[in-house]
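Hey,
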Amino acid sequence: MSEAPQPTTAAEKQSSARVLPALILAMLSFSVVQTAVVPILPSLAKELSVSGSSITWLMTANLLSAAVLTPLLGRFGDLRGRKPMLLISLTGLVAGSALAVSTHSFTWLVVARVLQGAGGGVLPLAISIVRDELPKQKVTGGVAAISASMGVGSGLGLVATGLLLEHWSYKSIFWMGLVFGLIAVALVALRVPSDPVTDKDGGADPLGALTLAGWLSALLVAVSQGNHWGWTSTKTLGLFAVAAVVALVWGVIEVKVKHPLVDMKMMSRPAVAFTNLAGLLIGFGMYGSFMVISNFAQTPEKFAHYGFTATVLHAGIMLLPSAVGSMVAAPLGALLIARRGPRLPLVLGGVLGAVAMAYLAVRHSHEADIYTASAIFGLGIGLAFSAMPAYINGAVPVEQSGIANGMNAVLRTVGGAIGTAVMAAILTGDTMKLPIPIALPTLDAYKHAFWTAAVVCAIAGAVPFLIRTVKPSTTVAAGIATADLDSSPQLAKTDA
């Protein structure tokens, strides 16, 4: 294992005011692009003349691509430098957006969404760059801001979609992604220095990469298409079986090879393993809840006797408080981490998410209920996202930061895919008989979905108690690599 480089002086560091905005915009670009199509999938199905089940591939393809490419880009960032991989990640997002703008073919639009999924590599790479380039006292705040940007961008993406569709066609959504991506590429190229942190002793693991892509692909396709194919169908069960077998093979390969893509000893450390479990649960809650709240708000009240008959824009605005909550969570999370360690914000994140969803299960008759729950939920998601990298960075050496945070991002994505599939199954499993050719879920179905999300978030809030932590020094930011402890004994440490 290579030695982490010694910290440079503040004069040699790039100013956080120069580097951090570029990284935050890069993260916002991906999160906006990823969620922007969610509220318009039904209208896209009509526009492109495809079935409702087929149009979901626009989300499935993106989630699958992000899940596979995120750890690969994170690991190559550890090996070859974070800035080049970050530029490649953003280039994929830009190329996908450009293709989406130029085509009217559903097939090519799916390919475009696959290319956009390369943007998933932004999160682990940006977090690693913050550890490399920012002064120690600003690392916690920088990591929290980047992590919380994922929740901010998701909320803003939903609002932007509705706003653009009020005046232009669905193409304008992909134009937005293209413009955001190009600006992010320019800022990263100009403002982010070439990082000195590379795992010079590491090597490629093509078989590990292939098997990782294999089991993730099988799992996500089964989860995403389970509602359409049937959860007990041969295709669904067969893909779950393939995912389990290939995942086992992948684990064996990673233990045996000299330079594994993913160090299984690192992944098995309590601080990493339980944080990844929390990431899976929080991802379930966030993506699933956004879908349910958006659908609930757009339900025609005249027929269902609930909902608000909201337009896509109106539904997006109802979720805007979640973006505001995530913005507030970034500095608050950094402060809590620096003073108390990452456990408190991660616990609070799960608890606030549970409170928000339980609130909606009980009170949902007025728009104010949606706004209130959305704000509480966004604050919780932002706190949880800010805490997870701090746990992981405190448990892994700096040269494994990219792959470790990349795998955490993968688990969030997998959780999101599972969450949307479970919520869709709950809603479609209990529908009303109406004199219109639309199947609307019953109010009880929505209540069950909200309670399900509440329980999952509550479990996520309990997970951190399984991780032992050492209270960090109040003078130094939490989340610094354990590899740095040899030279700076007062730095924070997460017990692994």
